[in-house]
Write a structure and sequence with these properties.
The chain is built from six helices and nine strands, in the order ααααααβββββββββ. 27% of the residues lie in helices and 24% in strands.
Protein backbone atom coordinates (compact mmCIF):
# COMPACT_ATOMS: atom_id res chain seq x y z
CA UNK A 1 0.00 0.00 0.00
CA UNK A 2 1.43 3.38 -1.00
CA UNK A 3 1.47 5.69 2.01
CA UNK A 4 -0.35 8.80 0.85
CA UNK A 5 -2.30 9.93 3.91
CA UNK A 6 -2.02 13.48 5.20
CA UNK A 7 0.06 13.98 8.36
CA UNK A 8 -2.89 14.22 10.77
CA UNK A 9 -4.58 11.13 9.38
CA UNK A 10 -1.26 9.30 9.22
CA UNK A 11 -0.69 9.58 12.96
CA UNK A 12 -4.19 8.31 13.79
CA UNK A 13 -3.98 5.44 11.33
CA UNK A 14 -0.48 4.56 12.51
CA UNK A 15 -1.63 4.37 16.12
CA UNK A 16 -4.62 2.19 15.29
CA UNK A 17 -2.52 -0.31 13.38
CA UNK A 18 0.09 -0.45 16.13
CA UNK A 19 -2.50 -1.43 18.71
CA UNK A 20 -3.76 -4.29 16.59
CA UNK A 21 -0.43 -5.48 15.19
CA UNK A 22 3.02 -4.70 16.68
CA UNK A 23 4.77 -5.59 13.42
CA UNK A 24 2.83 -2.90 11.56
CA UNK A 25 5.48 -0.29 12.43
CA UNK A 26 7.86 -2.25 10.23
CA UNK A 27 5.43 -2.47 7.31
CA UNK A 28 4.42 1.19 7.54
CA UNK A 29 8.04 2.33 7.61
CA UNK A 30 8.76 0.24 4.52
CA UNK A 31 5.77 1.79 2.77
CA UNK A 32 7.42 5.19 3.02
CA UNK A 33 10.09 4.06 0.57
CA UNK A 34 9.81 3.93 -3.19
CA UNK A 35 11.33 1.44 -5.56
CA UNK A 36 14.08 2.92 -7.65
CA UNK A 37 14.27 2.03 -11.32
CA UNK A 38 17.85 1.15 -12.32
CA UNK A 39 19.26 3.44 -14.98
CA UNK A 40 21.41 2.07 -17.82
CA UNK A 41 25.12 2.73 -17.33
CA UNK A 42 27.80 3.79 -19.77
CA UNK A 43 30.56 1.23 -19.19
CA UNK A 44 33.31 3.64 -20.19
CA UNK A 45 32.13 6.31 -17.76
CA UNK A 46 31.67 3.72 -15.02
CA UNK A 47 35.21 2.38 -15.46
CA UNK A 48 36.66 5.90 -15.46
CA UNK A 49 34.76 6.77 -12.27
CA UNK A 50 35.97 3.60 -10.55
CA UNK A 51 39.56 4.29 -11.61
CA UNK A 52 39.50 7.91 -10.45
CA UNK A 53 37.84 6.95 -7.17
CA UNK A 54 40.98 4.93 -6.47
CA UNK A 55 43.24 7.78 -7.49
CA UNK A 56 44.81 5.74 -10.30
CA UNK A 57 46.20 6.99 -13.57
CA UNK A 58 45.43 5.10 -16.77
CA UNK A 59 48.82 3.44 -16.53
CA UNK A 60 48.29 2.36 -12.92
CA UNK A 61 44.82 0.97 -13.62
CA UNK A 62 46.05 -0.84 -16.75
CA UNK A 63 48.82 -2.49 -14.75
CA UNK A 64 46.36 -3.53 -12.03
CA UNK A 65 44.02 -5.05 -14.61
CA UNK A 66 46.73 -6.59 -16.77
CA UNK A 67 45.56 -4.65 -19.84
CA UNK A 68 47.36 -2.38 -22.27
CA UNK A 69 47.01 1.33 -21.50
CA UNK A 70 45.61 1.91 -24.99
CA UNK A 71 42.99 -0.80 -24.46
CA UNK A 72 41.82 0.72 -21.18
CA UNK A 73 41.73 4.18 -22.76
CA UNK A 74 39.54 2.91 -25.61
CA UNK A 75 37.17 1.23 -23.14
CA UNK A 76 36.82 4.43 -21.11
CA UNK A 77 36.18 6.48 -24.24
CA UNK A 78 33.64 4.03 -25.66
CA UNK A 79 35.83 3.24 -28.65
CA UNK A 80 35.72 -0.53 -28.14
CA UNK A 81 33.54 -3.18 -26.54
CA UNK A 82 35.68 -5.29 -24.22
CA UNK A 83 35.58 -9.07 -24.34
CA UNK A 84 34.40 -10.99 -21.31
CA UNK A 85 38.02 -11.83 -20.51
CA UNK A 86 38.86 -8.12 -20.51
CA UNK A 87 35.89 -7.44 -18.25
CA UNK A 88 37.09 -10.11 -15.83
CA UNK A 89 40.55 -8.55 -15.75
CA UNK A 90 39.05 -5.11 -15.18
CA UNK A 91 36.88 -6.35 -12.32
CA UNK A 92 39.76 -8.21 -10.68
CA UNK A 93 42.04 -5.18 -11.05
CA UNK A 94 39.40 -2.94 -9.44
CA UNK A 95 38.64 -5.56 -6.75
CA UNK A 96 34.95 -5.78 -7.65
CA UNK A 97 32.70 -8.31 -9.37
CA UNK A 98 31.90 -8.19 -13.09
CA UNK A 99 28.21 -7.25 -12.43
CA UNK A 100 29.39 -4.27 -10.39
CA UNK A 101 30.95 -2.83 -13.55
CA UNK A 102 27.40 -2.40 -14.84
CA UNK A 103 25.74 -1.41 -11.56
CA UNK A 104 25.51 2.13 -10.29
CA UNK A 105 26.72 2.71 -6.73
CA UNK A 106 23.83 2.58 -4.27
CA UNK A 107 24.63 6.12 -3.14
CA UNK A 108 25.70 8.40 -5.96
CA UNK A 109 26.28 11.34 -3.63
CA UNK A 110 26.32 12.36 0.01
CA UNK A 111 22.83 13.49 1.00
CA UNK A 112 23.73 14.89 4.39
CA UNK A 113 20.45 13.69 5.90
CA UNK A 114 20.23 13.76 9.68
CA UNK A 115 17.56 13.64 12.35
CA UNK A 116 18.05 14.31 16.05
CA UNK A 117 15.48 12.98 18.52
CA UNK A 118 15.80 14.45 22.01
CA UNK A 119 14.83 12.45 25.10
CA UNK A 120 11.06 12.01 25.22
CA UNK A 121 10.44 13.54 21.79
CA UNK A 122 9.98 10.29 19.85
CA UNK A 123 6.59 9.20 18.52
CA UNK A 124 4.98 6.98 21.14
CA UNK A 125 2.84 3.97 20.24
CA UNK A 126 1.69 1.47 22.86
CA UNK A 127 0.75 -2.19 22.50
CA UNK A 128 -0.29 -4.77 25.07
CA UNK A 129 3.27 -6.12 25.30
CA UNK A 130 5.54 -3.24 24.23
CA UNK A 131 5.52 0.54 24.38
CA UNK A 132 7.38 1.86 21.35
CA UNK A 133 8.99 5.25 20.89
CA UNK A 134 9.89 5.76 17.23
CA UNK A 135 13.12 7.66 16.68
CA UNK A 136 14.12 9.80 13.67
CA UNK A 137 10.44 9.74 12.68
CA UNK A 138 10.77 12.86 10.54
CA UNK A 139 12.99 11.11 8.00
CA UNK A 140 11.20 9.28 5.19
CA UNK A 141 12.57 6.46 3.02
CA UNK A 142 14.85 5.27 5.82
CA UNK A 143 16.82 2.07 5.41
CA UNK A 144 16.70 1.43 9.14
CA UNK A 145 13.91 1.85 11.66
CA UNK A 146 15.25 2.79 15.13
CA UNK A 147 12.95 2.76 18.13
CA UNK A 148 13.12 2.54 21.90
CA UNK A 149 10.82 -0.01 23.50
CA UNK A 150 9.56 -0.42 27.03
CA UNK A 151 8.93 -4.12 27.61
CA UNK A 152 5.66 -4.68 29.44
CA UNK A 153 5.28 -8.41 28.81
CA UNK A 154 6.30 -10.80 31.56
CA UNK A 155 5.40 -14.06 29.79
CA UNK A 156 5.42 -15.33 26.19
CA UNK A 157 1.80 -16.34 26.82
CA UNK A 158 0.96 -12.63 26.42
CA UNK A 159 1.87 -12.79 22.72
CA UNK A 160 -0.38 -14.17 20.01
CA UNK A 161 2.31 -16.39 18.56
CA UNK A 162 5.70 -15.34 17.23
CA UNK A 163 6.48 -11.85 16.00
CA UNK A 164 8.18 -12.08 12.61
CA UNK A 165 8.81 -9.73 9.69
CA UNK A 166 11.24 -9.16 6.82
CA UNK A 167 14.76 -7.88 7.35
CA UNK A 168 17.31 -8.14 10.12
CA UNK A 169 17.14 -6.68 13.60
CA UNK A 170 19.51 -5.40 16.26
CA UNK A 171 18.51 -5.28 19.92
CA UNK A 172 20.41 -3.50 22.73
CA UNK A 173 19.33 -3.61 26.37
CA UNK A 174 19.22 -0.13 27.91
CA UNK A 175 17.79 -0.82 31.36
CA UNK A 176 16.58 -3.81 33.34
CA UNK A 177 16.79 -7.44 32.26
CA UNK A 178 15.01 -9.30 29.49
CA UNK A 179 14.63 -12.76 28.02
CA UNK A 180 14.86 -13.02 24.25
CA UNK A 181 12.90 -15.92 22.80
CA UNK A 182 13.65 -17.01 19.23
CA UNK A 183 12.23 -19.76 17.09
CA UNK A 184 15.45 -21.75 16.58
CA UNK A 185 17.56 -20.95 19.65
CA UNK A 186 17.39 -21.38 23.40
CA UNK A 187 16.03 -18.34 25.28
CA UNK A 188 18.70 -15.76 26.06
CA UNK A 189 18.72 -13.89 29.37
CA UNK A 190 20.14 -10.42 28.79
CA UNK A 191 20.90 -7.38 30.92
CA UNK A 192 21.96 -3.76 30.44
CA UNK A 193 24.68 -3.50 27.79
CA UNK A 194 23.91 -6.88 26.17
CA UNK A 195 22.91 -6.97 22.52
CA UNK A 196 21.65 -9.36 19.85
CA UNK A 197 21.53 -9.30 16.05
CA UNK A 198 19.20 -11.73 14.35
CA UNK A 199 17.18 -12.62 11.28
CA UNK A 200 13.78 -11.02 11.88
CA UNK A 201 11.95 -13.54 9.68
CA UNK A 202 12.70 -15.98 12.50
CA UNK A 203 9.98 -15.85 15.12
CA UNK A 204 10.99 -13.77 18.15
CA UNK A 205 9.50 -12.33 21.34
CA UNK A 206 10.96 -10.36 24.24
CA UNK A 207 9.78 -10.27 27.86
CA UNK A 208 11.01 -8.32 30.86
CA UNK A 209 12.45 -10.38 33.72
CA UNK A 210 13.23 -7.42 35.99
CA UNK A 211 10.90 -5.92 38.59
CA UNK A 212 10.62 -2.74 36.55
CA UNK A 213 9.77 -2.74 32.86
CA UNK A 214 13.00 -3.16 30.89
CA UNK A 215 13.84 -0.79 28.04
CA UNK A 216 15.68 -1.71 24.87
CA UNK A 217 16.83 -0.08 21.67
CA UNK A 218 15.68 -1.85 18.52
CA UNK A 219 16.98 -1.14 15.03
CA UNK A 220 15.24 -2.92 12.16
CA UNK A 221 16.43 -2.98 8.56
CA UNK A 222 13.88 -1.84 5.99
CA UNK A 223 15.65 -3.05 2.84
Amino acid sequence: MRWQLQDSARVAYFGAMIKSDPTSIIRIARANGEEATPQPLDLGIRVRELRKARGWTLEQAAVQAGLARSTLSKIENGQMSPTYEALKKLAEGLAISVPQLFTAPSKAQVTGRMAVTKQGEGQGHATATYEHELLAAALTKKQMLPYRARIRARSVAEFEGWVRHDGEEFLYVLTGTIRLYTEFYEPQDMRRGDSAYYDATMGHNVISTSEEDATILWVTSLV
